[in-house]
User: Fold these one by one.
Assistant:
Number 1:
Amino acid sequence: MVYFILKRLFQSIFVMLAVAFLSFSLFRFVGDPVSQMTGVETTVEDRERLREELGLNDPFLFQFARFTGDLLQGDFGYSYRTRQPVAEMIADRIPATLELGTVALIISLLVGIPAGVYTALNPRGFVTQSILLTTLVGVSIPTFVIGIMLIFLFGVQLGWLPTFGRGGTVQIGGWTSSLFTVEGWRALILPAFTLGVYQLTLTMRLVRAEMMEVMRSDYILFATARGIPWRRLHFRHALANTMVPVITIIGLQFGGVIAFSIVTESVFQWPGMGLLFLESIRFVDIPVMGVYLVVIAFFFVLVNLAVDLLYIAIDPRLRVKEAA
Amino acid sequence: MLDVQGLTVRFPSRHGDFTAIEGVSLSVNPGEIHGLVGESGAGKSTIGAAVIGLLQPPGYIAEGTMTLGDVDLRNLTAAQAHQMRGARISMIFQDPQTSLNPLMTVEDQLIETIQAHEDISTSDARTRAIELLEEIGIKQAATRIKAYPHQFSGGMRQRVVIALALCTNPELIIADEPTTALDVAVQSQVLDLIKRLAQTRGIGFILITHDIGVIAQITDNVTVLRGGKVMEHGPTERVLRAPEHPYTKALMDAVPRLDKRVERFLVPESDVVKVASPAGLTGADAEAWLLDGVQQGGADLEMKDVTVRFAGTRTSLWTKPEPFVALDSVSMQVRPGTVMGLVGESGSGKSTMAKVITGLVSPAEGQMTLAGDPLPAAKQRPRDHVSRRLIQMVFQDPYSSLNARHRIGEILSEPLWLYGLEPDAARRRQISAAMLDLVGLSADSIDRYPHQFSGGQRQRIAVARALLARPRFLICDEPTSALDVSIQAQVLNLLKDLQARFGLTILFISHNLAVVRQMSDDITVLRNGKVVEAQRSEAFFTAPKADYARELLQLTPAITF
Amino acid sequence: MLARFWHSDGFWMLRRSPAAMIAGLVAFLVIAGAVFAPWIASTDPYDLASFSLMDGLLPPVWQDGGMAQFPLGTDDQGRDMISAILYGARLSLLIGLMAMVIATVLGVGLGLAAGYYGGRFDAIVMRIADVQLALPAILTALLIDGIARGVLPSEMHGDVRVAVLTLAIALSLWVNFARTARASTFVERNKEYVQAAMIMGQHPLRVMFRHILPNILGPLLVIMTVDLASAILLEATLSFLGIGLPADSPSLGTLIRIGMQFLLSGEWWILWVPTLFLIALVVSINLLGDFLRDVFNPRLH
């Protein structure tokens, strides 16, 4: 078990190093950092001095090591566009994205898992067929179109909900939260739903497929032959076994939530990291792009490590050693 | 107690209703072990499923009555039927590896089963569960009960399965191939347990199996099925000793006997309507072609001190995992033109031997020679080494040993092309067709796909593929264990014929001692990767030297009458 | 051949599934329309001379002011909406298909080799896949686009747009193929027909491509369908975010982005015509994917 965790930890560190390397290569090779930082009037000597100061003449691996070291110490460099420290810019935006992503993920799980279970247990019913068709259409509509439709319906036609921004926010420590005001929640509903729909359909289809697989297994057949009450059979036996593969995929889906948050944030002008990333792409603001990558990969790796721990909690085969 | 009359089960399908069971009647009394025996497709398991009310949809009971005591099993609501399951009828499945919920402890599974049918406190249920486990032969049940299924060995797990079926005191237990996945030693313990439970607790058993040996060993009465119909039924001893129905007679003739060797099984050869090969070549031509290449006859093989280690699964970062020793300094000598029987339980290293010889696994130590020439280990053996052709193999599972996406013609002509035996494509096709004729298949099979053939026919195709390499050493790894007895007899006859005609050397790997006896000139017994005994076959079966070999022979279910 | 297809299980299932039949028909019509757009469409939306501002913002024919010449109306530039969506679908499908093919070749190749050889090679491929997974599709695509902007001089952006977009989408989809191909290869590799081929001394490439590949095509075909749908969606999303294709050679996504500007005004058709067209296309591809999944599920036979 300890070995399993350590192995996963090493894999995670590898992923982080690879992403850091990607980010570093971006910074180093896409465009010339010096010409980005200086104006036309800077002399050649000044440029050369800056180059030396930045350590751009050092050996490549040495530069990468220093870059990684800086990242670890929270020194993320400066934006080409705003000249602000990137760390501050990102830190300002993190709460908005995390709140949006978390609420969306919760929506997708709260609806997706029960719907998946229901459709797996009643595979031929009318309700099931309707749900399946709806979700199929759901995965086929681009996230931004769902956003537009929601804005059009609830924002423009009905005028019930705000269509952009975070609404009322509260400062808690360094964290700007919209979870503590009614206005904040009202602003959060549409974007979170938009972001959650796609994950919801994926979760539902996955739970359904896995559950149907489990329902056909020998141990469910045996439990049926022993007359275990249906409710217990479905939830204690079948659902628990379904969750083992499902949580792995949900962990991987977290990446999808983050990615689509870029789209959602763009549609709803939600001031999160995704919007920042889009702006940085538009202006080729390499340091911000690079750091965004590292931060996203970090969250992804963190969530998947947590999933591994959950895995161990659920599955005794990973927890308890084999014995004769 | 259980009385089934005129049971008919149908499965609706695209081509109209398929009748899986037709007019089957049987009855089981308390304490009786009633065997249901038959080959695949006989409908044995369907009867069991119908009785317990778990027919796979869309199957349905079309006709017949089923009563258990005073309860009409066909007239139950879904809820009543579910209450009946466990409480009065229970079931044991084939594979103990998959029939327990891996996420729940044995204790949880036992207690929930007891509480599902009885209003009883958890601690009382636990006490009963522990008593039951002890009765069934699990030591230190009070602590072992806290364990998860994966912490038990195969045989112990099947005991847990039996405990689960038993814990609600049912009157009838349907055991569907309960020992098929187990080794002989464990199988005999489980069978003893079933027999004891029938006697002491008066439970009626329906024992579904394809193994006549198992039927002979523990059942009181037997029903012989074929194609969903009852062929014959009666007291086991009478039916097996003096079968009345021609099918039962043929079945008994096809069963390999542990106590004697027969030269040929008395079974009808395959009932294929033969179509002449397109080029007019027949089995005789294939035979001539083969003899052209194997004038030298079979090759001898010698293995000396071969040791195979597999890396263990890593569980710690600092200590290197213990390697798993699959073969421990194994030596074996196969005489040219003879059949060497390689026997052992699962995990004994039989299949690893085949892999070492064919070059799929590299031994850590040891030497091998084939026909006097050194046979390099897998890592040093070039792809075009002559042994690649000389050594051929027939596998266990005819359903996976032929590539499902290739036509028979492509499968058969591959060795001819690969080894450069026949440069001309048309000629390759002719020889392939002739070879099909030789192994007893119609030559027009050449344009079909493997899924259009039965298991026995596929095994014939696999043999044909092996022969088309002009081999001098043939490895047969459990070639008949996936086949029905009558088909097994046909395939064994084919192998015997070919061996006699071409003087092939064969390494015949099997866990089934009765089959091995029919085939082998010599015997090597493996246990945990070590050779326990190596002998001439007849000497081995009449007077085994090693204790383990003697035990193995004793425990193998045999027809003694 | 035709008769065999007609009697095959797959076709039998198709005849029993009206949803799959309709989906097949819609997908066929859209693809045919896209392929033959230059012959079907009344105007060439890329050719500024073929339309006129005078015809701008005409509603569909059934609304007041609609003209029979433009059945689904025109956009603000005076482009015929039907021509625009046909050409747009052509571009979207082209990018989607190319991306899918590249992703398939790359992913299946690596997955097969990883599953076949196992060991260190497998570990390396899977770690790369891990990294790719940590950077999801949209992110990868955006990133590659960003790099292209940084590396290439700005006047070249327009020319390499399609290539950059295709590559970006392909790179974000290959992992799916690689993981599936690897998992299936692991299973197939231990089957006896593969062992037989290995024992015979066949070349690893022959074993992989001639023996294993045909046996793992089923699940891969399902992924190909589903990923074609994702590729089209991804292209639309990127174009919507304004980093996909420019307005002078609009894909479906670009058309939707343009239509967004008219969300609040009365010209609803400029937004909803391409949107509904896109949804119909993707829904039908996904329905076909679902259908294929059933066909390849051995339990349903």
Number 2:
Amino acid sequence: MKYLNKLILILFLLFICTNVSAKEINIYLFHSSDCTHCKAEIKYLDELKEKYDIKIYKYEVVHNIENNALLTEVKKLMNDESNYVPYTIIGTTSITGFSDVQKVQIENAIKEYQAISYCDKVGIYLGKVKDTSACNNENNKKEKDKEDSKMTLPIIGEVDVKEFSLPIISIVVGLVDGFNPCAMWVLIFLLSILIGMKNRKKMWILGLTFILTSAFVYLLIMLAWLKIVASFTTIRWLQIVIAIVALIAACINLRSYFKARKEDDGCTVTDAESRKKIIGKVKRIANLEEESENKKKFAFILAILGVMALAISVNVIELACSAGLPLIFTQILAMNKVTKIAKLIYVLIYILFFMIDDIIIFIIAMFTFKVTGISTKYTKYSHLIGGIIMLIIGILMILKPEWIMFNF
Amino acid sequence: MKIVRVSAIWCPSCILMRPIYDEIVKKYNLESEELDFDFDEDKVLPLNVGNKLPVVIIYKDNEEKARIIGEKRRDEIEKVFEGLV
């Protein structure tokens, strides 16, 4: 009799476990009958049917006008702008295109939604799902979250923290990233040489060329990071790899802060070879300026090109100096469901504050004909703050990724 | 008394410290020689200044008496000179 009770208990537990995990997951696939990737995905989804309890709804959008209209509405619902098929929705995750990467994303999404209750808003819109309780809970939670994220600040009044989080992170991380000394010395060196020219108009043009080229190069680098990270953002293990990179970068930054604390504040002379190369380039640019009268115009154009080449090489070198922070920032952007335009704006805010110390030094030099320096104490603290930021975000990305998803 | 000031044109700390040392030179009526780490390499190398700039070497009767390395407050610098004057 005792064994019978145990057997019943085990069966009962088994039933609960399987019941919990046997929840049917709806998959909505918008495809085209002429598209090879779509056919490959349809075949893949059919194979997944043997492995998981899934229901697949297919909508051919090229030859069926109604389905095409549905696709447009569903994209609005999902806040998505991509125009490609296959376009797959599982729960609140949308996946565009189909290759090995998307295979992993689809399977991850199925496992994720089997384990949680979620609002299948696309299913409700398409009339495939009647039960809207999950959505109501989610909406209530969102309303509550909205209330929770509201704060009343002196003078400013009521503020929604979630609305402010991404811009604030763009500003803070951009500022900290901008304070690292890697490229600063080149700007100071260039300004010192330009001041020697005593020609304010040329100083403005060459100085602005250096700053704008640096900003443009850094913009390209960050958009490249964003593209890479965005295509893998739903793959959990890749998020963890990026988090580990962030933690390593954090340790490096904190170590250089504690090391610098024991040393004298001052300029550390490193890498004589590359420094000499850059100094040589700048001197050649300056010497171009002393060309004879008739070659002046041609020489000045060469000087501008020289400054652009200098800015490009310095910023590519600097990439290794501060790769941690841009990588994390773009990962946070990718994890937040914001439109492409919004992402570009946040990157531009980041770069504005990344360049702000250079801009200040440049403007002071232009108006006073004197180069000002920023004490290395502050660059030392930028290692500390940068290290702490990367440590916190790296840990959050592993343990609580949803805490850095402000727009979900 | 003589001082040799080793700095670099690209070094922000050197820019910050320059006016302070200019005043010190006036105050103590010092003989002052300025060397650039990159452009006066032949003179700087024998001085073994290390990898932190600026460096100020103080000589008295042609003998090195002290070195001041990196960014320092004005009172810290004056304390060194008071001890040597």
Number 3:
Amino acid sequence: MSFPILSLLILTPLIGALIISLSSSSQLNNQTIFISGLWITTGEFILSLLLPVFYDQKINGYQFKEFHTWFDKFDINYYLGVDGISIPLILLTTFLVPICLLCSLNSIKSRVKEYVIYFLLLESFIIGVFVSIDLVIFYVFFEAVLIPMFLIIGIWGGENRMYATFKFFLYTLAGSVLMLLAIVYIISVTNTGNIEIISNFKFGNQIELILFLCFFASFAVKVPMFPFHTWLPDAHVQAPTGGSVILAGVLLKLGGYGFMRLSIPFFDFASVYFQPLIFSLSCIAIVYTSIVALRQEDMKKMIAYSSVAHMGFVTIGIFTLTQDGMNGAYFQMISHGIVSAALFLIVGVVYERHHTRMISDYSGVTNIMPRYSFFFMIFMLASVGLPGTSGFVGEFLVILSTISVSVYLTIFTAIGVVLGAAYMLLLYKNVNFGDVKSDIKMLSDLNRIELFYFTCLATLTLLLGVYPKLLFKMIDQSIATGIL
Amino acid sequence: MISYKLLFFLPLFSTMFTYPLGMLLGSKTAQYLSSGLISLSAIISWVLFVDFYNTGSNEMIIPILDWLLISGQFFNWGIAINSLTLIMLTLVLTVSALVHIYSIEYMAHDKSKTRFMTYLSLFTFCMVALVVSDNLIQLFFGWEGVGLASYLLIGFWHHKKSANLAAMKAFLVNRVADFGFLIGIASLYIFLDTLSINEIIKEKDFLLYFEIELLGMTVDALTFACFFLFIGAMGKSAQFGFHTWLPDAMEGPTPVSALIHAATMVTAGVFLTVRFSELMVMSDFVMTFILIIGLLTAFFAASVGFFQKDIKKVIAYSTCSQLGFMFVACGLGAFNIAIFHLITHGYFKALLFLSSGSVIHGVHDEQNMDKMGNLFPKMKLTAIMMWIGTMAIVGFPYSSGYFSKDLILSSSFNLHNLGSLVYIILAIVSAMTAFYSFRLIFKVFHGTYNGDYNYNKIHESGIFMILPLVLLSIGAIFAGYFFNNILSGYNAEEFWNKIIFLSNEKHQYSSFFPIFSKTLIAMGIALAVYFYGFNQVKLNDLKKQFVNIYRFILNKWYFDELYDKIFIKPIYNLGKFLWYKIDQGIIDRFLPNGSASIVASVAKACKKIQTGFIFDYTFIIITGFTLFISIIFYVSVS
């Protein structure tokens, strides 16, 4: 492929950010900045749609490869490529970023220029993670993602944003340092940064275990797995809606993607060896966070905890090391990316109007905002994992795959399904049903922009639930040949 | 082919288009539209059923769309047509169509009629999807879909707190049971590598070769899978232990209770058990378990039905009890009779519910039977319909309930050891059924009026409500007669065509037993007539005399309180504990905050040294230098 589409995907938002930052702020009002940001990200989305169109499912391995030498001596290169595992996540990213900007149109009033720039940078870096097949490039992008995210929460966050950002940074950095050490070691041993070559390298069992744990530290924080999850509720609560959307929608998937792309292909022995550890942490995450979510008073916190539980399904599915489990886990990642993003938007809508996230401040919203509760219902059900929505497919496949490992694992995951229904229904009931509070009466129903993005998200949720073949076609082959 | 697909798609269209069209053309049009679509599919189902029966076709599977990819194989959305699914379809669509029509009038004054009709159609679609599925995934879709519709409809009046809570309870109790269902599905999948129902039944023998260990017990995979599938069935069909949601579900509008919580959705559990009858019969343990649960439910629910005040709750408990009968039939291996009772019960129970809806409508939304009485002169047609329904449930000779119930009683003799015991329990429960059913009739239609609502304003319902009642009453009277031969008589083997397990044993039926059960039922009726028609004082004396038993029954055997104590409160408290003590108390304190505070305190200590005064620094330099020198000396000497 001569046309460097992957580099273009990385560069488009970067150039966009550059143009916006160079233009003097006196000429541009907030509206124009947002609109130019939207143009850039929409263009990026259309560009990314070329990937599934031209991707050939019959060919194994990476496609659209780009190769430029960087450090000759260590065989570290600017080496990009995508397969069925990265493409859906790239699409998810390019799909969500315009929505993040759309939902901030009215809520972000200060420093709009920086806000848009950070989102563009964020998009560029995230895509960089998904397209790089060189370990060093991967690491650079993986870490770079932190910076704009850190700033987004730190600048436009809520009252307690400093605590949240530092917590977020501390956790992720601690993990990353370990991963960096492991990467340095790997490159010094293998003399290459090429992920494909490293996958076939045998490290020796003892070393594999240590290296696995180093990678694990980084990815487990990102996912997040119990007990490294406590940064997530705080970060979500403090982040602006757009930040929450991208954080829940895409950033958490970096962990799952890391496990699939690096940990498992690199360390076959350790992946099997640490199965029990990961299963038990995931089971705890599912049951524990579901129970904690039941008691939350803040809507965003509740959804944040539910994210931890849902990502527990992902880690379980991945580490069953079976085709069904991986397919399910991957599907769950995409589905959660859409659904949890939508749920954070749902919270954002009422927060923007009523300036509180406390569940107890709401009651009877469905009478005032019927369209809103309609969409809320769809996403709530998808989160609960009702068949016919995207949430079901992943959960179901993961549960099916667990029984080949242990009946107990099945039981724990199935308990998670029950509890998941409990807190989401409770949330929905408390917000939407009951008597209308007097101050709720002032709220207005969804406006056209909100209607637009909720319709997009809901369509996608139902489409993937009814016709998941769209995604299966893409991932099945790559998972079978690339990972297992 | 097209006509079969229509059965699937007409309800779907109704679900999708009722609401938008209601917005455009007004709610009345939407009501007629959805009723029309569902009625059309009901008519088609009957035509297909008759055609299927006459031509004796084999099972057909019509795929619609690929769905899930599992182990490299796509499972699809599709329609499986066989005798079992067709006969269920006729029931589901007929009752649904009648309920749609009934709701036109019943909900006439409600603001959100279109929403109501949309939910009803959604329910119908999901129920059809459940019934016609040829694989477990679509079945699960339908299973959850009807649960969702039930949730939405129970909480339809969402300004009522009790309705919201009841809706949540229904959904969650069912979820707990679905937990079992999921495990059942997963275990079938792992051993047979398929989720297609036909293939599972074909390869069922393989299940016996595998064993599963759970909590120190080793069971074969067949028993394991069947047991957990049955747990799922228990939830949907409100069996003992999982029954608590059903009475509360009566918070929903009455047409909903008739359709979902009497005639169709709650029978999905029975349907599931029958669909897998070939598997179930292979496990003695599961069959015995089903039998015991069925008996327990039948008895328990009938006893609670005794003293309920709410007219709908009495019928709800009677539904629960009749579902118990169906499971007893399953447990006895008489699956065809379970379906037979399911069908007849569907008609007469829908009739009872819709009649009670007519009563409630007439007395201006009063549900307390203590505030009714002597309504017969005011609403004769409704009263007659209620009488017909009651006759059917009691098992009055040649009514529909007579055939199916009698067959369940007689099939208990297939069990050689304990058959008579099962029989006696069932006979007693039948008598109890007779008692509370006639209690209802007498409290509502006869005696004296005690209500607050102006007696003269009480009115009979209009044509849209009466017409479905009349049609259902035809079913309640003749369904037994009509289906007897097909489902359990001489044509049964040909009709079922090996779709379900059919026991070969012919019932030996000694002449004493039918008389025994019939006498008991007659006594039950007589007691109800005596207490509620003539001598209420005597009843009150008895209540006082056995006050503990009375309270125990009145409080529904304290199930709700028990569950609250052992499940809900502990989980709720655990949530608080985990959040404050573990998440914030331990993880946060030691991991991020702990490391941060160590860094902070070290930094603070270092800060103290940096005072900015020259003499402080000089002092430190000198001390440091001295220390350094002495260490060098110390090291070199030693």
Number 4:
Amino acid sequence: MIKLEAVNKHFGDLHVLKNINLEVGTGEKLVVIGPSGSGKSTLIRCMNLLEKPSAGRIIIDDTEITAPKAPITTIRQSVAMVFQQFNLYPHKTVLENLTLAPILVKGVSKKEAEESGLLYLDRVGLRHKADAYPAQLSGGQQQRVAIARALNMKPQIMLFDEPTSALDPEMIQEVLDVMTDLAKEGITMVVVTHEMGFARNVADRVIFMDQGQILEEGTPEHFFTNPAQERTKSFLSRIYHAS
Amino acid sequence: MPGPFAAFKWVALLNEWQTFAEGFLHTILISFCGLVLALMLGILFGILGSSQWRLAKLANRCYVELIQNTPLVIQIFFLFNALPRFGIMLPVFSVGVLGVGIYHGAYIAEVIRAGIQAIHKGQMEAALSQGFGYWSAMRHIILPQAKRVVYPPLTNQAVSLIKNTSVLAMIAGGDLMYNADSWSSSNLYYGPAYVVTALLYLIICYPLTRAARWLERKAEVTA
């Protein structure tokens, strides 16, 4: 479903991604962990070309998105992203946030977009907020709306870029619950997170990144019981001591 | 010797009020068309200036710096005197519209650019991530949000534009200022002519200034 071949990314002198090779299967739930500045956000942002790799190829569903004339807007319709800062459209109501892109980008009828939108709002427990504006919601609610907005595009892939990092601690769980529920479906998920409980419960595979490289990958069992690398061990122990 | 504001001068002005009304109407028309042009140029170059493309940014800088750093009078003289040398003869009305339109377009471009850049970059990223193209994202996501920020400074630009149409008096523009000037230079009744002219500008500009203040307060409340 997603394939990265020798992907490199430079920001000026900074070498943020170093020769990344990675494959994510259809329906797989991949969790990316690692210290800040390790390149995990850049990695996930390359997957829908919000960052352009400096070198290497990224292939999504048999289409090379790094090709010069790749139909990137078409591909992005099936690769939804949930951001750390939610990025809801503040001038639109919650329901309009969900229906705007399906109507304008995919050409879905307004009625159809609203019906499915309400279903997804129901699913994240916020149907009663359909007519509210984002500023009237708590952070946790905003992020749940953002997830519903992503879902209303009916994507095949969902990218989560630290979806709980900007939330107050008491709101993290409600967002993780929605994501855990979502993971039961066939959708392919790539999640950058510091939530080790989520990684343990939901991930099919975990990768640990440090200094722009994938240092270790394996099942959650492997990671949380017997990681091989010293760096991984020290990172995990620091995370656990913190929480 | 009668004073500059002697009563008979006012009477003369009242008797020939059409001269002032005509100029006033002309000023309003030039202002309106000039404002439409300025807005179109301003929005286009404002978006170019806020984009990531180097050429677009360069185009924005050239336009804005060239226009903002030369006097409006010279630009008007150029349109009026230099273009005919290249075989382009514009009616004075068009010179007026182009002159103030291009001039204030450059200022409005900066207002729009600042407005766009005030919107968090996550908004554009969210729109792109949903499959919006750049221009479509601008239209549906970014500009509607930037609107609230730019209304007050835009209104100020509209006021300046109206006042600056008076520069057209220097090329026989047929605007309010020109008519006042030519009327009073033939009879030397400068006093009433300029007072009335100033009042007429005030009548259009004052409500706009008030509107700008109101929009400013509104933007503060909803921000």
